[in-house]
Amino acid sequence: MDYQLRQATPEDAEAVVLMHTLSHEECYPHLLSPQFFAARRDAIPERVERRRKHLDGPDPRIIAVDSNDEVVGFADAGPGRDEDGPVPLELYSIYILGRAQGMGLGAVLLEAAIGDSPAYLWVPADNPRAQAFYRRHGFRPDGKRGLLPPEWESVPEMRMVRVGHDH
């Protein structure tokens, strides 16, 4: 699959939200209830408005688009949101649609969003595939655990940190 990366703009908000929604449905059926996914679909209009604001700034908001100009991947990063953040930079998310997985796009998105910088991220505790991906890129659990907010059904999550590059 051919794809191109670029910084997202507020005009991409709807495409990014739709891609996120589909990606969550592909990734997390074992973690979240059907009601959660239905509510996410019902909330798409508000989510697009929130996303528009999130995409309007200088921090990395990287989208991968395929040859049909459809968004197949997204990564974003910025100032850490944890008061006890281990390093200043947080990788907020990387999502890739199933049809675009397994071709190295995750590594390319990670590189575009944070380069080789020290960074940290949160990942569902029951997502071994994502954890293995981040481990390959130098991230390690730092022992900090938490729960996603109630609207995310309080799914347990864990923090992973990359202090320096070790590969």
Search tags:
167 residues; 3-stranded antiparallel sheet; 7 strands; 4-stranded antiparallel sheet; alpha+beta; single chain
Summarize the structure.
This protein has 167 residues and is α+β, with helices and mostly antiparallel strands. 32% of the residues lie in helices and 29% in strands. The two termini are 27 Å apart.
Describe this structure in words.
It is built from 5 helices and 7 strands, in the order E-H-H-H-E-E-E-H-E-H-E-E. The chain is α+β, with helices and mostly antiparallel strands. The longest helix is centred in the N-terminal third of the chain and has 15 residues, at 13-27. It is globular, with a radius of gyration of 15 Å. The two termini are 27 Å apart. The model has no long low-confidence stretch (mean pLDDT 95).
Give the SSE layout.
Elements: E1 3-7, H1 13-27, H2 34-42, H3 44-54, E2 61-66, E3 71-79, E4 89-96, H4 105-114, E5 119-124, H5 128-136, E6 140-147, E7 156-162
Antiparallel strand pairs: 1-2, 2-3, 3-4, 5-7, 6-7
Give the overall form: globular
Which stretches are poorly predicted, pLDDT < 50 over at least 5 residues?
none
Mean pLDDT: 95
Oligomer: single chain
Structural class: alpha+beta
